[in-house]
């Protein structure tokens, strides 16, 4: 949904209602995770996708109905639903989708949310997506302003706010369940943590390509090099910031300031030992998501020998991905950037990075079960109830 906030706000500011269809649950092999959204705006304009193409036409028709009536709909597509709906997922999985109308009345604080997300602040939007009719579409917002909105009882708002803070810390969007007066409600907590960082050290064409791909993947990209003639905004237009500083000094200062964490990607691409070795001595103890370095196998052997001589232990050295990237036969800067990005994604998902055609396991990484999850008749009944109920105006 993060990618569509600008479109949503543009229509909101123009006073045009938008239908937002959001994935609220997945089971089995499903193409898009919880929190993925599709927008249907003025003139039938579509932005985004909920399934990669399998059920978009059906969701579009439901979205048009929601725009016309203002009534939300909780939908299910996948195993066991094809005969009833005429559509389903070709991958064999199942998804739940919540469709709601967003406008100035139902989401009056949308500009504050979008501004905070774009400023890199941590924001969570918690929306009731299943439960009694009067609860649907109510929201609680958690962000730099504190907490706004209400789902009802004060204790529930506090519980939802705790869920939001927990999921922001884990950088996860998830549906959480609560029971109120004997009724179960499902709350989609859409977490918008600050984007993870990718810090690339060096100032070459390969660095420019990595910065481009890193930004595409949603990282906040910093390029750092000690040479002012090379570390310029013009040479790295896709980086969010270009820093002129000695790499090890800059990284040490960022780590002390708490701006390096378990989602951070670090890449040493200086090709110069006087920059690289001090940098790696600082980087290796840091609990980052990925630490890679370029260079030939011979260059890496020399690098490891010098780091050992400097007192770096074997456990720390084992964390260094070098030569960085998957074995794609990459030759150009763009191909090298794709190779490195592919390894970063594989490491993040705990995958080996082989060819899918040679594998036998799941294609998509396992995701936590959530929302109206499970094949029970009770869940199916709850979906039918949600399809026919009206959405109360958002409380946020």
From TrEMBL:
Name of the protein in its database record: XdhC family protein
Domain XdhC- CoxI: 11-78, 117-177
InterPro entries (UniProt xref): MoCofactor_Util/Proc, XdhC_CoxI, XdhC_Rossmann_dom
Domain XdhC Rossmann: 198-344
Pfam families: XdhC_C, XdhC_CoxI
Disordered: region residues: 353-381
Xref: PANTHER family: ALDEHYDE OXIDOREDUCTASE MOLYBDENUM COFACTOR ASSEMBLY PROTEIN, MOLYBDENUM COFACTOR INSERTION CHAPERONE PAOD
């Amino acid at each position: 949904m993060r990618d569509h906030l600008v479109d949503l706000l543009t229509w909101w500011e123009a006073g045009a209602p938008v239908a937002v269809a959001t994935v609220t649950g997945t089971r089995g092999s499903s193409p898009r995770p919880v929190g993925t959204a599709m927008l249907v705006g003025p003139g039938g304009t579509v932005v985004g996708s909920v399934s990669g193409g399998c059920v978009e036409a059906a969701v579009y028709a439901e979205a048009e109905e929601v725009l016309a009536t203002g009534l939300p709909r909780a939908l299910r597509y996948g195993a066991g639903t094809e005969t009833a709906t005429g559509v389903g997922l070709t991958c064999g999985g199942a998804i739940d989708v919540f469709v709601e109308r967003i406008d100035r009345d139902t989401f009056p604080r949308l500009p504050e949310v979008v501004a905070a997300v774009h400023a890199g602040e941590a924001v969570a939007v918690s929306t009731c997506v299943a439960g009694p009719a009067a609860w649907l579409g109510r929201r609680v917002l958690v962000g730099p302003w504190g907490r706004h909105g209400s789902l009802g009882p004060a204790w529930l708002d506090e519980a939802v706010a705790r869920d939001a803070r927990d999921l922001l810390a884990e950088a996860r969007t998830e549906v959480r369940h609560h029971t109120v007066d004997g009724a179960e409600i499902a709350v989609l907590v859409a977490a918008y943590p600050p984007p993870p960082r990718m810090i690339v050290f060096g100032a070459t064409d390969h660095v420019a390509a990595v910065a481009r791909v890193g930004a595409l993947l949603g990282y906040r990209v910093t390029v750092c090099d000690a040479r002012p003639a090379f570390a310029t905004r013009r040479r790295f237009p896709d980086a969010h910031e270009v820093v002129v500083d000695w790499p090890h000094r800059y990284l040490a200062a960022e780590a002390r300031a708490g701006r390096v964490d378990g989602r951070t990607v670090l890449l040493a691409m200086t090709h110069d030992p006087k920059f690289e070795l001090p940098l790696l001595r600082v980087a290796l103890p840091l609990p980052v998501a990925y630490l890679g370095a370029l260079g030939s196998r011979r260059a890496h052997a020399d690098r490891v020998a010098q780091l050992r001589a400097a007192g770096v232990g074997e456990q720390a050295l084992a964390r260094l991905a070098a030569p960085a990237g998957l074995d794609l036969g990459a030759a150009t800067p763009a191909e090298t950037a794709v190779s490195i990005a592919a390894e970063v994604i594989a490491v993040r998902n705990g995958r080996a990075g082989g060819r899918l055609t040679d594998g036998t396991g799941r294609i998509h990484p396992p995701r936590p079960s959530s929302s109206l999850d499970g094949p029970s008749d009770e869940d199916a009944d709850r979906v039918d109830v949600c399809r026919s109920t009206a959405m109360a105006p958002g409380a946020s």
